[in-house]
Amino acid sequence: MKRVDAAMLAVLAAEANLAPSVHNTQPARWALDEEGRVLLAADLSRHLSVGDPTSRDMGLSCGAALEGMAMALAARGIGVTIDDLWTRNLLDWRPGYRLAARLQLTGEDAVRPALSEWTARRFTWRARFSPTSPEQIKRLEHWAVQAVDVRLAYGRKDLAFVASLNDRSSLATMRERAFRDELVRWMRLSPRHPAYSTDGLNLAALQMGRLEGALAGHLLASPLFDIADRLGLGQALVAELEKTMTAAACLLFHRPENESPIVSGQAFYRFWLSFTRFGFAGWPMAVLADLPSAAQALRERFALPPGHRLINVLRVGPAPSTVPKYRLPAGDLVLDGKPA
Protein backbone atom coordinates (compact mmCIF):
# COMPACT_ATOMS: atom_id res chain seq x y z
CA MET A 1 0.00 0.00 0.00
CA LYS A 2 1.23 3.47 -0.83
CA ARG A 3 1.97 5.69 2.15
CA VAL A 4 2.37 9.39 2.86
CA ASP A 5 4.98 10.71 5.29
CA ALA A 6 4.89 13.97 7.22
CA ALA A 7 6.98 15.89 4.68
CA MET A 8 4.78 14.79 1.79
CA LEU A 9 1.64 15.58 3.78
CA ALA A 10 2.76 19.20 4.12
CA VAL A 11 3.16 19.49 0.35
CA LEU A 12 -0.23 17.88 -0.22
CA ALA A 13 -1.85 20.12 2.41
CA ALA A 14 -0.58 23.25 0.66
CA GLU A 15 -2.11 22.07 -2.61
CA ALA A 16 -5.39 21.17 -0.90
CA ASN A 17 -5.45 24.61 0.71
CA LEU A 18 -5.82 26.26 -2.69
CA ALA A 19 -9.51 25.42 -2.28
CA PRO A 20 -11.94 28.23 -1.39
CA SER A 21 -13.02 28.80 2.20
CA VAL A 22 -15.47 31.18 3.85
CA HIS A 23 -13.78 34.58 4.41
CA ASN A 24 -10.52 32.78 3.48
CA THR A 25 -10.43 31.37 7.02
CA GLN A 26 -8.69 28.16 5.83
CA PRO A 27 -9.95 25.92 8.66
CA ALA A 28 -8.76 22.57 7.26
CA ARG A 29 -5.94 20.86 9.17
CA TRP A 30 -4.26 17.56 8.35
CA ALA A 31 -2.60 14.76 10.29
CA LEU A 32 -1.48 11.14 9.91
CA ASP A 33 -2.75 8.52 12.32
CA GLU A 34 -0.83 5.46 13.48
CA GLU A 35 -2.22 3.38 10.61
CA GLY A 36 -0.99 5.82 7.96
CA ARG A 37 -4.42 7.24 7.23
CA VAL A 38 -4.82 10.95 6.50
CA LEU A 39 -7.05 12.80 8.95
CA LEU A 40 -8.90 16.02 8.21
CA ALA A 41 -9.89 18.23 11.12
CA ALA A 42 -11.50 21.66 11.37
CA ASP A 43 -9.62 24.28 13.40
CA LEU A 44 -12.39 25.65 15.61
CA SER A 45 -10.49 28.89 16.24
CA ARG A 46 -11.43 29.77 12.66
CA HIS A 47 -15.15 29.29 13.10
CA LEU A 48 -17.37 32.29 12.33
CA SER A 49 -19.69 32.14 15.32
CA VAL A 50 -21.94 34.96 14.05
CA GLY A 51 -21.90 34.40 10.31
CA ASP A 52 -21.90 30.61 10.53
CA PRO A 53 -23.72 29.64 13.74
CA THR A 54 -24.40 26.04 12.60
CA SER A 55 -20.80 25.52 11.38
CA ARG A 56 -22.13 24.56 7.95
CA ASP A 57 -19.82 26.98 6.13
CA MET A 58 -16.86 25.58 8.04
CA GLY A 59 -17.90 22.10 6.95
CA LEU A 60 -18.22 23.23 3.34
CA SER A 61 -14.76 24.81 3.54
CA CYS A 62 -13.28 21.59 4.90
CA GLY A 63 -15.09 19.60 2.22
CA ALA A 64 -13.56 21.77 -0.50
CA ALA A 65 -10.10 21.22 1.02
CA LEU A 66 -10.81 17.49 1.18
CA GLU A 67 -11.54 17.47 -2.54
CA GLY A 68 -8.29 19.34 -3.05
CA MET A 69 -6.42 16.71 -1.04
CA ALA A 70 -8.01 13.87 -3.04
CA MET A 71 -6.96 15.57 -6.28
CA ALA A 72 -3.43 16.17 -5.00
CA LEU A 73 -3.10 12.50 -4.04
CA ALA A 74 -4.57 11.33 -7.35
CA ALA A 75 -2.05 13.49 -9.21
CA ARG A 76 0.59 11.28 -7.56
CA GLY A 77 -1.22 8.09 -8.47
CA ILE A 78 -2.67 7.53 -5.00
CA GLY A 79 -6.34 6.68 -4.62
CA VAL A 80 -8.38 7.14 -1.44
CA THR A 81 -11.55 6.00 0.21
CA ILE A 82 -13.14 8.67 2.36
CA ASP A 83 -14.93 8.26 5.67
CA ASP A 84 -17.02 11.39 6.24
CA LEU A 85 -17.09 12.08 9.99
CA TRP A 86 -18.68 15.54 10.03
CA THR A 87 -22.15 14.60 11.18
CA ARG A 88 -20.69 12.68 14.15
CA ASN A 89 -19.46 16.00 15.59
CA LEU A 90 -16.25 14.49 16.98
CA LEU A 91 -14.79 17.12 19.29
CA ASP A 92 -12.77 14.83 21.56
CA TRP A 93 -9.97 13.99 19.13
CA ARG A 94 -8.01 16.91 20.54
CA PRO A 95 -8.98 20.24 22.12
CA GLY A 96 -9.85 22.95 19.61
CA TYR A 97 -10.49 20.69 16.64
CA ARG A 98 -13.41 18.84 15.09
CA LEU A 99 -12.52 15.63 13.29
CA ALA A 100 -14.08 15.93 9.84
CA ALA A 101 -12.93 13.01 7.68
CA ARG A 102 -10.56 10.08 7.45
CA LEU A 103 -8.81 9.13 4.20
CA GLN A 104 -7.65 5.57 3.66
CA LEU A 105 -4.97 5.36 1.00
CA THR A 106 -5.73 2.55 -1.44
CA GLY A 107 -3.35 0.31 -3.33
CA GLU A 108 -5.05 1.15 -6.58
CA ASP A 109 -3.48 3.66 -8.92
CA ALA A 110 -5.62 6.77 -9.28
CA VAL A 111 -6.06 8.75 -12.48
CA ARG A 112 -5.28 12.46 -12.25
CA PRO A 113 -8.64 14.31 -12.30
CA ALA A 114 -9.04 16.61 -15.30
CA LEU A 115 -10.15 19.48 -13.05
CA SER A 116 -6.97 19.40 -10.97
CA GLU A 117 -5.05 21.34 -13.60
CA TRP A 118 -7.28 24.35 -12.91
CA THR A 119 -6.71 24.65 -9.15
CA ALA A 120 -3.92 27.21 -9.48
CA ARG A 121 -5.99 29.30 -11.91
CA ARG A 122 -9.13 29.51 -9.76
CA PHE A 123 -9.56 32.79 -7.95
CA THR A 124 -12.16 35.21 -6.61
CA TRP A 125 -12.66 38.50 -8.44
CA ARG A 126 -14.45 41.26 -6.49
CA ALA A 127 -14.69 43.96 -9.13
CA ARG A 128 -16.16 44.58 -12.56
CA PHE A 129 -15.82 41.74 -15.04
CA SER A 130 -14.45 42.08 -18.54
CA PRO A 131 -16.75 41.57 -21.54
CA THR A 132 -17.63 37.95 -22.30
CA SER A 133 -17.30 36.44 -25.75
CA PRO A 134 -20.28 34.61 -27.32
CA GLU A 135 -18.22 31.43 -27.36
CA GLN A 136 -17.61 31.64 -23.61
CA ILE A 137 -21.32 32.15 -22.95
CA LYS A 138 -22.17 29.21 -25.18
CA ARG A 139 -19.76 26.89 -23.36
CA LEU A 140 -21.02 28.05 -19.96
CA GLU A 141 -24.65 27.53 -20.95
CA HIS A 142 -23.96 24.06 -22.37
CA TRP A 143 -22.19 23.00 -19.18
CA ALA A 144 -24.81 24.47 -16.83
CA VAL A 145 -27.64 22.68 -18.63
CA GLN A 146 -25.82 19.38 -18.17
CA ALA A 147 -24.96 19.94 -14.49
CA VAL A 148 -27.39 18.45 -11.98
CA ASP A 149 -26.60 20.95 -9.22
CA VAL A 150 -26.43 24.26 -11.10
CA ARG A 151 -29.02 26.78 -12.25
CA LEU A 152 -27.93 29.47 -14.70
CA ALA A 153 -29.19 33.06 -14.37
CA TYR A 154 -28.24 35.26 -17.29
CA GLY A 155 -29.73 37.96 -19.43
CA ARG A 156 -30.38 41.43 -18.05
CA LYS A 157 -33.67 40.63 -16.31
CA ASP A 158 -32.34 37.65 -14.37
CA LEU A 159 -29.07 39.40 -13.53
CA ALA A 160 -30.92 42.50 -12.36
CA PHE A 161 -33.17 40.35 -10.15
CA VAL A 162 -30.21 38.60 -8.52
CA ALA A 163 -28.19 41.82 -8.21
CA SER A 164 -31.02 43.74 -6.55
CA LEU A 165 -31.80 40.86 -4.19
CA ASN A 166 -28.12 40.61 -3.25
CA ASP A 167 -27.91 44.30 -2.39
CA ARG A 168 -31.05 44.20 -0.24
CA SER A 169 -29.92 41.03 1.51
CA SER A 170 -26.43 42.40 2.11
CA LEU A 171 -27.85 45.51 3.75
CA ALA A 172 -30.09 43.43 6.03
CA THR A 173 -27.09 41.38 7.12
CA MET A 174 -24.72 44.31 7.52
CA ARG A 175 -27.17 46.04 9.82
CA GLU A 176 -26.18 43.45 12.43
CA ARG A 177 -23.30 44.96 14.40
CA ALA A 178 -22.02 41.56 15.54
CA PHE A 179 -21.79 40.37 11.94
CA ARG A 180 -19.88 43.50 10.91
CA ASP A 181 -17.48 43.14 13.83
CA GLU A 182 -16.73 39.54 12.91
CA LEU A 183 -16.26 40.43 9.25
CA VAL A 184 -13.82 43.21 10.09
CA ARG A 185 -11.79 40.79 12.23
CA TRP A 186 -11.15 38.79 9.06
CA MET A 187 -10.43 41.82 6.88
CA ARG A 188 -6.78 42.73 6.37
CA LEU A 189 -7.20 46.39 5.46
CA SER A 190 -3.58 47.45 5.84
CA PRO A 191 -0.42 45.81 4.48
CA ARG A 192 0.93 46.16 8.02
CA HIS A 193 -1.61 43.66 9.34
CA PRO A 194 0.38 40.63 10.63
CA ALA A 195 -1.82 38.21 8.68
CA TYR A 196 -2.07 40.32 5.52
CA SER A 197 -0.39 37.74 3.28
CA THR A 198 -1.66 34.56 4.90
CA ASP A 199 -5.42 34.54 5.47
CA GLY A 200 -8.60 36.60 5.59
CA LEU A 201 -9.63 39.27 3.09
CA ASN A 202 -6.87 41.72 2.29
CA LEU A 203 -6.85 44.81 0.10
CA ALA A 204 -5.84 42.90 -3.03
CA ALA A 205 -8.58 40.32 -2.53
CA LEU A 206 -11.17 43.03 -1.87
CA GLN A 207 -9.96 45.14 -4.81
CA MET A 208 -9.45 48.14 -2.54
CA GLY A 209 -6.79 50.80 -2.28
CA ARG A 210 -5.24 51.71 1.08
CA LEU A 211 -7.40 54.76 1.65
CA GLU A 212 -10.57 52.93 0.66
CA GLY A 213 -9.65 50.06 2.96
CA ALA A 214 -8.96 52.35 5.89
CA LEU A 215 -12.29 54.10 5.41
CA ALA A 216 -14.16 50.79 5.09
CA GLY A 217 -12.63 49.41 8.26
CA HIS A 218 -13.40 52.56 10.23
CA LEU A 219 -16.96 52.72 8.94
CA LEU A 220 -17.85 49.07 9.49
CA ALA A 221 -16.24 48.76 12.91
CA SER A 222 -17.98 51.77 14.40
CA PRO A 223 -21.48 53.20 14.91
CA LEU A 224 -20.93 55.31 11.80
CA PHE A 225 -22.55 52.63 9.64
CA ASP A 226 -25.72 52.75 11.73
CA ILE A 227 -25.78 56.54 11.55
CA ALA A 228 -25.30 56.49 7.78
CA ASP A 229 -27.99 53.85 7.45
CA ARG A 230 -30.46 55.97 9.42
CA LEU A 231 -29.72 58.78 6.99
CA GLY A 232 -30.66 56.51 4.10
CA LEU A 233 -27.09 55.87 2.95
CA GLY A 234 -26.82 52.23 4.02
CA GLN A 235 -27.79 50.75 0.67
CA ALA A 236 -25.25 52.89 -1.16
CA LEU A 237 -22.50 51.67 1.17
CA VAL A 238 -23.07 48.00 0.36
CA ALA A 239 -24.35 48.28 -3.23
CA GLU A 240 -22.73 45.98 -5.79
CA LEU A 241 -25.48 46.08 -8.43
CA GLU A 242 -23.44 47.83 -11.11
CA LYS A 243 -20.55 45.39 -10.68
CA THR A 244 -22.87 42.40 -10.63
CA MET A 245 -24.45 43.50 -13.91
CA THR A 246 -21.05 43.17 -15.62
CA ALA A 247 -21.04 39.42 -14.92
CA ALA A 248 -21.58 36.96 -17.74
CA ALA A 249 -24.05 35.10 -15.52
CA CYS A 250 -24.91 34.15 -11.98
CA LEU A 251 -24.68 30.47 -11.07
CA LEU A 252 -26.94 29.03 -8.37
CA PHE A 253 -25.23 26.03 -6.80
CA HIS A 254 -27.58 23.66 -4.97
CA ARG A 255 -27.27 20.24 -3.33
CA PRO A 256 -29.54 17.77 -1.49
CA GLU A 257 -30.65 19.48 1.72
CA ASN A 258 -29.68 16.56 3.98
CA GLU A 259 -26.24 16.08 2.41
CA SER A 260 -23.21 16.38 4.66
CA PRO A 261 -21.42 19.74 4.31
CA ILE A 262 -18.25 17.76 3.59
CA VAL A 263 -19.78 16.17 0.50
CA SER A 264 -21.37 19.46 -0.55
CA GLY A 265 -18.02 21.21 -0.13
CA GLN A 266 -16.30 18.64 -2.34
CA ALA A 267 -18.93 19.23 -5.02
CA PHE A 268 -18.62 23.01 -4.62
CA TYR A 269 -14.90 22.91 -5.40
CA ARG A 270 -15.55 20.82 -8.51
CA PHE A 271 -18.29 23.26 -9.51
CA TRP A 272 -15.95 26.25 -9.24
CA LEU A 273 -13.16 24.52 -11.14
CA SER A 274 -15.62 23.56 -13.85
CA PHE A 275 -16.36 27.14 -14.86
CA THR A 276 -12.74 28.15 -14.33
CA ARG A 277 -12.06 26.05 -17.45
CA PHE A 278 -14.01 28.59 -19.51
CA GLY A 279 -11.79 31.47 -18.49
CA PHE A 280 -14.11 32.73 -15.75
CA ALA A 281 -13.41 34.00 -12.27
CA GLY A 282 -16.09 33.81 -9.58
CA TRP A 283 -17.43 36.17 -6.91
CA PRO A 284 -19.64 34.58 -4.24
CA MET A 285 -22.88 36.10 -3.00
CA ALA A 286 -23.19 33.79 -0.01
CA VAL A 287 -25.78 36.00 1.69
CA LEU A 288 -28.32 34.84 -0.90
CA ALA A 289 -28.02 31.29 0.42
CA ASP A 290 -27.67 32.25 4.08
CA LEU A 291 -30.72 34.52 4.29
CA PRO A 292 -33.84 32.29 4.15
CA SER A 293 -36.04 34.88 2.43
CA ALA A 294 -33.45 35.44 -0.31
CA ALA A 295 -32.91 31.71 -0.83
CA GLN A 296 -36.65 31.19 -1.12
CA ALA A 297 -36.99 33.99 -3.68
CA LEU A 298 -34.29 32.38 -5.82
CA ARG A 299 -35.79 28.92 -5.37
CA GLU A 300 -39.10 30.14 -6.75
CA ARG A 301 -37.72 32.16 -9.65
CA PHE A 302 -35.20 29.59 -10.85
CA ALA A 303 -37.11 26.39 -9.94
CA LEU A 304 -34.58 24.64 -7.75
CA PRO A 305 -35.32 20.92 -7.45
CA PRO A 306 -37.46 19.79 -4.51
CA GLY A 307 -35.38 18.51 -1.63
CA HIS A 308 -32.37 20.63 -2.58
CA ARG A 309 -30.98 23.62 -0.72
CA LEU A 310 -29.13 26.59 -2.15
CA ILE A 311 -25.45 26.39 -1.16
CA ASN A 312 -24.11 29.54 -2.81
CA VAL A 313 -24.59 31.92 -5.70
CA LEU A 314 -21.61 33.06 -7.75
CA ARG A 315 -21.45 35.80 -10.31
CA VAL A 316 -18.95 34.76 -12.95
CA GLY A 317 -17.14 36.37 -15.84
CA PRO A 318 -13.72 37.05 -17.31
CA ALA A 319 -11.37 39.03 -15.08
CA PRO A 320 -8.84 41.50 -16.51
CA SER A 321 -6.11 40.08 -14.27
CA THR A 322 -5.55 37.36 -11.73
CA VAL A 323 -5.52 37.86 -7.97
CA PRO A 324 -2.84 36.02 -5.96
CA LYS A 325 -4.04 33.47 -3.42
CA TYR A 326 -3.09 34.40 0.13
CA ARG A 327 -2.59 31.23 2.10
CA LEU A 328 -1.15 29.96 5.37
CA PRO A 329 2.30 28.32 5.28
CA ALA A 330 2.17 24.57 4.71
CA GLY A 331 3.62 23.94 8.16
CA ASP A 332 0.62 25.59 9.79
CA LEU A 333 -1.75 23.16 8.08
CA VAL A 334 -0.28 19.92 9.46
CA LEU A 335 -0.82 18.59 12.98
CA ASP A 336 0.75 15.81 14.96
CA GLY A 337 -1.72 12.97 14.53
CA LYS A 338 -1.49 11.83 18.14
CA PRO A 339 -4.31 13.15 20.33
CA ALA A 340 -3.34 15.48 23.14
Describe the model.
There is one protein chain. This protein has 340 residues and is an alpha+beta fold. A four-stranded antiparallel β-sheet has the order 1-2-4-3. The protein has a four-stranded antiparallel β-sheet with strand order 5-8-10-9, with helices on both faces. Strands 6-7 form a two-stranded parallel sheet. The chain is globular, with a radius of gyration of 20 Å. A hairpin with a 5-residue loop joins strand 1 (28-32) and strand 2 (38-43). It contains 13 helices and ten strands. It folds into two domains: 6-109, 3-Layer(aba) Sandwich (NADH Oxidase), CATH 3.40.109.10; 122-317, NADH Oxidase, CATH 3.40.109.10. Helix 1 (6-16) packs across helix 2 and helix 2 packs across helix 11. The mean pLDDT is 95.
